[in-house]
């Protein structure tokens, strides 16, 4: 059964959904065909016109199916072809009305079902056009039948049918407008929810002061990089950067200047690291830099250039300019060790750099 459905509907999910929608319209028209044939059988409708109507109706639905199944409809703005199918269904219904004589009353509820498809698939503007088309089409059909076949289609009865049809179409339009407003509100709510989720993700992955990745996000990325390197055989480096004498800056100039120093170091570092690298605030005045696909010699060279750029920064505080320097430890991840072990080696290297004095870079063994 699954293979049969795949052969009939294909495996493309969106195309299968469109074909399923077409199948619903086709099922409705198949019921209409069966009803018309029933009226032919009991002698209410003439056989030859009913046969032509049946052939054209089935051929039209087969054409819609083939246009969607072949992928040709992908070229159009509406690949599902729901609007053309509904126009076809309304036209087929009007033709059936003219064929059925005494049995024509069954066409009116079928027409409403066709319009109900539009409530869920068409825009409010498209629904207005469909409703106008349906009213004008059936007004013309009923008028012509009343003029050309007054015995089968009495004018007074046709007027009653038309009033009922117009009232039903109006109700469908009101329902479509109501659903359109509900869909609009739902879209707004989805957009607001998406924005809220985006802000939440931003808060859970970003440091509020510097805008850098936070510690938790960096730990997740480091673990992902470790697993990637296990599969690829490549390696990466991790550097731990520390602002020298940061506590003294806070005490001498205040926390506002300390925050300005943190932001300045973050922005300067982001300008001079590679796009593939990730910089995170690790905590306090410490930053972690991950350098994918990098050997330690290249990582050290990049850190020395960054060290020079940061040392050239000056944070103005009144008439005084506050200078900044960095100390750093850097390690190349070893195959077989976990992230915590690599970070431990980096921390030892940073501690050694701090012990040697400010502005030092030490490579972990």
Q: From the alpha-carbon coordinates, what is the Rg to the nearest angstrom?
A: 37 Å
> What spatial form do the alpha-carbon principal axes imply?
elongated
Strand order of the largest sheet: 2-3-1-6-7
Largest sheet: 5 strands, mixed
The run of helices and strands is: HHHHHHHHEHHEEHEEEHE
**Secondary-structure class:** alpha+beta
Helix content: 55-70%
- Figure out the total of helices: 12
Number of domains: 2
Distance between the termini: 63 Å
The percent range for strand residues is 5-15%
Number of strands: 7
Q: How confident is the prediction overall: mean pLDDT?
A: 87
Structural summary, described in words:
The strands form 2 sheets. A 5-stranded mixed sheet has the order 2-3-1-6-7, with helices on both faces. A two-stranded antiparallel ribbon has the order 4-5. Helix content is about 70%, strand content about 10%. With about 375 residues, the chain is α+β, with helices and mostly antiparallel strands. It has 12 helices and 7 strands. α12 links the parallel β6 and β7 (about 360-365). The model has no long low-confidence stretch (mean pLDDT about 85).
């Amino acid at each position: 059964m699954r293979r049969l459905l795949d052969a009939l509907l294909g495996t493309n999910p969106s195309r299968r959904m469109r074909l399923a929608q077409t199948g619903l319209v086709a099922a409705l028209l198949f019921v209409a065909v069966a009803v018309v044939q029933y009226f032919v059988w009991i002698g209410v409708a003439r056989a030859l016109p009913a046969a032509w109507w049946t052939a054209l109706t089935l051929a039209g639905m087969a054409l819609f199916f083939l246009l969607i199944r072949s992928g040709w409809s992908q070229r159009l703005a509406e690949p599902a072809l729901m609007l053309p199918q509904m126009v076809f269904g309304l036209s087929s219904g009007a033709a059936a009305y003219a064929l059925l004589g005494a049995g024509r009353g069954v066409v009116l509820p079928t027409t409403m079902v066709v319009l109900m498809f539009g409530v869920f698939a068409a825009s409010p503007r498209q629904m207005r056009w469909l409703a106008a088309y349906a009213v004008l089409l059936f007004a013309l059909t009923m008028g012509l039948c009343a003029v050309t076949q007054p015995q089968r289609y009495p004018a007074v009865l046709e007027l009653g049918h038309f009033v009922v049809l117009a009232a039903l179409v109006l109700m469908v339009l009101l329902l479509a407008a109501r659903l359109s407003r509900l869909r609009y509100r739902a879209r707004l709510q989805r957009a607001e929810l998406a924005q809220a989720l985006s802000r939440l993700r931003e808060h859970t992955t970003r440091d509020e002061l510097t805008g850098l990745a936070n510690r938790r996000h960096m730990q997740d990325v480091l673990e992902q990089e470790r697993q990637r390197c296990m599969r690829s055989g490549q390696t990466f480096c991790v550097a731990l950067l520390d602002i020298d004498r940061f506590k003294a800056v806070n005490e001498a100039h205040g926390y506002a200047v300390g925050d300005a120093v943190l932001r300045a170091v973050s922005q300067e570092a982001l300008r001079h690291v590679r796009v593939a690298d990730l910089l995170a605030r690790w905590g306090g005045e410490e930053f972690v830099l991950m350098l994918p696909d990098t050997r330690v010699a290249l990582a050290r060279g990049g850190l020395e250039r960054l060290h020079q750029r940061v040392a050239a920064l000056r944070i103005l505080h009144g008439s005084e300019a506050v200078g900044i320097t960095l100390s750093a430890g850097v390690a190349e991840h070893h195959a077989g060790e976990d992230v915590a072990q690599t970070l431990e080696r980096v921390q030892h290297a940073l501690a050694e750099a701090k012990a040697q004095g400010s502005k030092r870079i030490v490579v972990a063994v």
